[in-house]
Specification:
This protein has about 300 residues and is an alpha/beta fold. It folds into 2 domains: about 180 residues, D-Maltodextrin-Binding Protein, domain 2 (3-Layer(aba) Sandwich), CATH 3.40.190.10; about 90 residues, D-Maltodextrin-Binding Protein, domain 2 (3-Layer(aba) Sandwich), CATH 3.40.190.10. It has 13 helices and 10 strands. The strands form 2 sheets. It has a 5-stranded mixed sheet with strand order 2-1-3-10-4, sandwiched between helices. Strands 7-6-8-5-9 form a 5-stranded mixed sheet, with helices on both faces. The protein starts with a helix and ends in a 5-residue tail after the last helix. The relative contact order is 0.18. The N terminus is likely disordered.
Length: about 300
């Protein structure tokens, strides 16, 4: 009888312990789509340093080579969120994909170039007042075209002077520029610096535009979960601090994951990232006004339809 009682006591103890063990070992999995872009560095540091895991989150970075592949994965439910921009976020809403922006990743900052209007090597002597009729490679209906329109609006380059050539694939745009088949191209870093290294010249940048450049978004059910987003952004914020405090520690990670060209790798600047924050209503409205002018969307969505609830 004593043996039976001991067995029952052991059995009941196991039943009580099992749920606790399952609860403590189970981490929330979040699949984040990423491009090989500099703005993803806080995400990469947070995963490589275990900052998400420390807070009970299993964040998996899913790599994509193009925004098209990334967006397709989001529409088909193969990822839970991604690194992108406000134009892409609004397009998700247009496609009835239920997502919300949870933070700005990078913003235009004086002294920190993220995008540059680069000449071909053959056109390196061009001046901003000599752009009339020159061809410029870009991707239309994207953040790239939005930036070029803002650069013209702020008189960084003459408005309406250049002939725009729609080249969606960034590697093709780079190749055409370097082979002098385009006069100029608007490109993100580090490709703008690569264009300079190969003999081109940067005629304009995003530095004075005062806008958010890249963002993170999540499925709305995740974005509106305050416990989850609190943990996610706490880990992200710690990664931002680590990058600010010890930038060179993460140079190899940046060179590998963000595909810094070998000639630029030793001296390419480590970026400064802002603490997590939501884009302002003004910034969201500005993007949507531009998209309506371009007939990309029929009308504007409310701020609450694009951005997560304030934390």
């Amino acid at each position: 009888m004593r043996t039976i009682r001991c067995f029952l006591l052991f059995f009941l103890t196991c039943l009580v312990a099992l749920p606790v063990q399952a609860q403590t070992s189970q981490a929330q999995t979040i699949r984040m789509g990423v491009l090989p872009a500099l703005g993803t560095m806080p995400l990469r540091v947070a995963t490589s340093d275990g900052l998400f895991k420390k807070r009970g989150l299993d964040v998996k970075l899913v790599p994509f080579n193009s925004a098209f592949e990334r967006d397709t994965a989001m529409r088909t439910g193969n990822i839970d969120g991604y690194f992108g921009d406000l134009v892409a976020a609004v397009l998700m809403r247009k496609a009835n994909v239920d997502v919300r922006v949870i933070t700005v990743c990078t913003r235009s900052t004086p002294g920190q170039r993220m995008f540059g209007l680069v000449t071909s090597p053959k056109m390196k002597d061009l001046q901003p007042d000599q752009l009339k009729g020159r061809t410029v490679g870009l991707s239309t209906s994207t953040i790239i075209e939005y930036l070029l329109d803002l650069m013209e609006k702020k008189n960084i380059v003459p408005a309406g002077a250049m002939e725009r050539v729609d080249i969606k694939k960034l590697p093709v745009r780079v190749q055409m520029l370097m082979s002098n088949k385009l006069d100029l191209a608007l490109m993100p870093e580090p490709l703008a610096s690569l264009g300079e290294f190969k003999g081109g010249k940067v005629l304009g940048t995003d530095e004075e535009l005062a806008i958010p450049l890249t963002i993170l978004l999540l499925r709305t059910d995740l974005a509106h979960n305050p416990e989850l987003t609190g943990k996610f952004l706490a880990a992200y914020s710690e990664a931002v601090r680590r990058l600010a405090d010890h930038p060179e520690k993460y140079r190899d990670l940046m060179v590998y994951e963000c595909r810094i060209p070998k000639p630029l790798a030793p001296d390419f600047p480590m970026l400064h990232f802002p603490a997590p924050e939501l884009p302002t209503p003004k910034a969201v409205q500005s993007v949507q006004t531009w998209m309506m002018e371009k007939k990309i969307i029929p009308g504007a969505y409310s701020y609450e339809q694009i951005v997560a609830e304030p934390r």
